[in-house]
Amino acid sequence: MNLLSLEQAQKSYGEKVLLKQANFYLNEGEKxxxxxxxxxxxxxxxxxxxxxxxxxxxxxxxANHVVLHFLEQNPQMPADMxxxxxxxxxxxxxxxxxxxxxxxxxxxxxxxxDFNQPCxxxxxxxxxxxxLAKTLLRPADILILDEPTNHxxxxxxxxxxxxxxxxxxxxxxVTHDRYFLDQVTNRIxxxxxxxxxxxxxxxxxxxxxxxxxxxxKILQQQNGRICYELSWNG
Length: 234
Ligand SMILES: Nc1ncnc2c1ncn2[C@@H]1O[C@H](COP(=O)(O)OP(=O)(O)O)[C@@H](O)[C@H]1O
Ligand SMILES: [Mg+2]
Prior knowledge:
The chain is of the alpha/beta class. It folds into two domains: about 160 residues, 3-Layer(aba) Sandwich (Rossmann fold); about 60 residues, no CATH class. About 40% of the residues lie in helices and about 25% in strands. It has a six-stranded mixed beta sheet with strand order 5-6-7-3-8-9, with helices on both faces. The protein has a three-stranded antiparallel beta sheet with strand order 2-1-4, covered by helices on one side. Strand 1 and strand 2 form a beta hairpin. The longest helix has 17 residues. The radius of gyration is 18 Å and the shape is globular. It starts with a strand and ends with a strand. The structure holds adenosine-5'-diphosphate and magnesium ion. Magnesium ion (MG) binds next to helix 1. Magnesium ion binds next to helix 1.
């Protein structure tokens, strides 16, 4: 079943064209990694898919009753709000007492042990980890994660890897961590052709790409800058 789709999307900032007639489809059970060099528009694509940014043209469709949680690359939070309050922000008053122990456990997992610390005192890395705790607090049908392992130490990254491998919903993730990408995703989309990264997975991708050259050409024509999509399952 299709959960989220983006069709014929265009997005530019000034002269810079990031998406041109881009199509993206997310189905149930898919865990998609998006790769590409810095500045190609990965964050912009995730924001459009999450609905926090609108494309200049094209349409985004989300299936009914789908719960989507989004981790921004650089999350913003009110400076005077406590970390715990931030994680619980938006939750109904009657749900808080049930959620609070889970929120605290998640914060401790990410080594944010002072629950009353104002967000304004947090470093960039601590903010990202607080936002990750908020993103994971409740079950979601779709997780959209922009560079989730930035600012995680090995233990936290292992924890997240285990969590995401068990997670039964769909996911779209941008990360530069090739190992993590290989462990938790089952599909890779490259945004921009220029960025071949020579790891085992990507070499497999290039081999597949060569086998499917004609299919790829059609995909390229259809998708503009989202040049090709490859399944690791085949
Ligand atoms: N709100 C914005 N206003 C102007 N330019 C932007 C904005 N957001 C992104 N850009 C530009 O678009 C390009 C792609 O940005 P981004 O989506 O963050 O790419 P990536 O995540 O792949 O590094 C960058 O050159 C960036 O400067
Ligand atoms: Mg980015």
